[in-house]
Amino acid sequence: MGGRAVVAFADPVTFFLPWAKIAKVGKLGSSAIGAGIASADMALYEYATHGEVTPNNVLFAAGLGGASSFAGTLLNNKLYGPKDKNVNLGKVDDSVEDVIVKSSAKDEAVIKLTLKEAEDLDDATLKLHHKTML
User: Fold this and answer.
1) Rounded CA gap, 54 and 79, in Å?
2) Dist CA 104 CA 82 (whole Å)
3) What distance in Å separates the CA atoms of residue 130 and residue 134, rounded to the nearest whole number?
4) S-S: 21 plus which of 14, 35, 103, 130, CB 3.0-4.6 Å?
5) How far apart are the first and last CA of the chain?
6) C-alpha of 95 from chain center
7) Closest CA to 60 of 33, 29, 39, 45
8) 3-state secondary structure of 69
9) Whole-structure pTM over 0.90, yes or no?
10) Taking the C-alpha atoms of 15, 20, 21 and 26 in order, what is their torsion angle to the nearest 10 degrees?
11) From CA 37, how far away is CA 58, in angstroms rounded?
C-alpha cells in the first residue's frame, strides 16, 4: 500500500499527463476536478486582469467547467466504450481461433433526486462555497 501511495504522488507521467489520472476517477470525480480547474482559472484570470475576484464569475466558471467535464466524459464513454458485450481479444497464447469474452463494463446508475433533495444539495453547495470564499 505504501508503494502505491508513493507512486501516486511521485509518478512523473501523471505529473505531466494529469488527465490520465483524472480519467480513472469516474464521471462525478472528473466533473468535480473540471469545476475546480475552471474556477481556479477564472479566479487567477480575474485577479491578474482586474486586481480582484468576483465570486459570481468564479461560481459560473465552476458550474460550466463541471458541466462540460461531465458532458465530455459521457461523450467519450459513448464514442469509445464497448459497443457489444462480447469483446474479441484476438488470438491469445498461440490459440488457433479468436478468444471472445463477455465485457464486464456496466453503465453507472443514474442518480435521481427529489426536488427537496436537489434543493438541499444546492443550499449545501452554496453554503460550502461561501465558507471557502471567506
Assistant:
1) 37
2) 10
3) 6
4) 14
5) 37
6) 39
7) 39
8) helix
9) no
10) 160
11) 11
HSE of 10, CA atoms in CB hemisphere, 13 A: 6
Secondary structure E strands in 21-118: 86-90, 99-102
Buried b (16+ CB within 10 A) or exposed e, 11-48: eeebeeeeeeebeeeeeeebbbbbbebbbeebbeebee
**Tens-digit pLDDT string for the chain (134 aa):** 556 666 666 666 666 767 667 777 778 888 999 999 999 999 999 999 999 999 999 999 999 999 999 998 888 878 877 677 777 777 777 777 787 777 766 667 778 888 999 888 888 888 887 777 76
Cell 464514442 appears where?
79
